[in-house]
């Protein structure tokens, strides 16, 4: 008699189901479910942008009991920067514009890497 062992694992590829819901020991908040099928096969978190999550969450918050505890995972759309900070991927002129918008003085002859160090 021979035995065979098959091990199945997730490849990280393919469609996903993205589910947002809020519940407690008393059950789920009525009409709070937000679920949809991912259209991408890669990083499905890119699909749910921060603004969309914030809108859903803002509509749910008033319906929670006072002193509720909220636990979120570390998905990128659960926390986002309100303002983008310059990176090395930015054009030098965009970095200069950003510095000007913050009223930060700089020498126009500086290299991009030097502007980022300010």
From TrEMBL:
It comes from the Eukaryota. InterPro entries: RNaseH_sf. Signal peptide: none annotated. GO terms for molecular function: nucleic acid binding. This is Tc1-like transposase DDE domain-containing protein.
